[in-house]
Recover the amino acids of this structure.
């Protein structure tokens, strides 16, 4: 079951108390970015749909709580895109209001064609996020990737971005994605991977690991499809052996147990779901036998 609001508030109080607090939440696992050795927490936050809201306080209040709790529980990596409506602007405004921008690892994307259009869109993203430079800029769905990759390399050399990468969210793009990963020096690849969409584990994840490329995982719940499969069903008792207290944690821990995964980025606008997701990044992860058992369970649904 998702955490109650009371449980969320307890987690927030524990986070505020710090590691010395008796009920402090367990620390998130960290994994290195292969190209630099810098470590990042294994659970991040996506903003697709969830952060695309208006300016009304009532619309933004839950997201402010989510963002504060995310940082309090040790989160850093937050992913957005200019194609996500107002998400970049909302994220930038909330991070500034909460004075937490320096504690976040900002990742966004370029999603247009042409040199001038790409540069303008990336400048706009930096302005919307209200930060001096980006941690990670990604070429979304490989759109005009050759043009944008030249710009990203220039910007990285100039210190305007720290890392560069490419993304895709569907297996139909894997042929081209694989060619890019083999031919180009990249810091990150973002790809869809879940118990409902396993194609990446055959080609993309092993290749990324071999090439020393960090992996961000999107669509970890198959756009909610995994929850539909298990709706109304109790979590099997043996899931506790892998440290899972909810279906969300089972789905996320299965992803995180793959050695190529660097960080998974589930999106949510609900604090109780955020707290539940973050717990997947702490404690033990399933071994290969347990992962197979989890996969068989979901395949049977």
């Amino acid at each position: 079951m998702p955490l109650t609001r009371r449980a969320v508030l307890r987690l927030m109080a524990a986070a505020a108390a710090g590691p010395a607090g008796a009920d402090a939440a367990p620390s998130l696992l960290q994994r290195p970015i292969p190209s630099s050795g810098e470590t990042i927490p294994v659970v991040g936050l996506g903003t697709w749909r969830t952060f695309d809201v208006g300016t009304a306080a009532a619309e933004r209040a839950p997201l402010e709580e989510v963002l504060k709790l995310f940082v309090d529980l040790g989160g850093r990596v937050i992913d957005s895109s200019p194609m996500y409506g107002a998400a970049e602007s909302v994220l930038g405004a909330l991070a500034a209001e909460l004075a937490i921008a320096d504690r976040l690892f900002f990742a966004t994307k370029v999603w247009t064609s042409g040199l001038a259009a790409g540069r303008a869109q990336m400048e706009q993203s930096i302005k919307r996020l209200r930060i001096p430079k980006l941690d990670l800029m990604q070429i979304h769905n490989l759109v005009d990737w050759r043009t944008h990759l030249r710009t990203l390399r220039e910007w990285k050399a100039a210190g305007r971005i720290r890392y560069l990468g490419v993304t895709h969210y569907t297996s139909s793009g894997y042929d081209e994605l694989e060619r890019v990963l083999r031919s180009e020096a990249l810091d990150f690849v973002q790809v869809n991977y879940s118990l409902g969409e396993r194609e990446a584990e055959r080609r993309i994840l092993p290749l990324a690991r071999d090439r020393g490329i960090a992996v961000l995982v999107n669509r970890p719940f198959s756009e909610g499809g995994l929850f539909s499969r298990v709706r109304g069903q109790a979590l099997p008792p043996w899931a506790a052996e892998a440290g899972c207290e909810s279906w969300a944690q089972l789905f996320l821990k299965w992803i995180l147990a793959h050695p190529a995964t660097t960080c998974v980025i589930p999106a949510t606008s609900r604090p109780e779901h955020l707290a539940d997701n973050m717990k997947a990044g702490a404690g033990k992860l399933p071994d290969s036998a347990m992962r197979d058992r989890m996969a068989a369970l979901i395949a049977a649904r």
The CA atoms of residues 12 and 69 lie 6 Å apart.
